[in-house]
Amino acid sequence: MTYDRLVCANCAAPVSQGRCPVCRANRERLQQEGPFTDLNPMALIVLLVVLVAALALVAQQTA
Q: pTM score, two decimals?
């Protein structure tokens, strides 16, 4: 989730504006997250299965 749609419970302003210390802290925390934080767990499982299948296929072709 991106912080531009979040509303602060402390000041009722958008977190992206950073009006209060709580907004600013959450905005900083959300900006520091990595590139894979937006993926849901099911997408990560699918990527893992595809990777294992690709490795199995390569191992089978080299044997």
A: 0.45
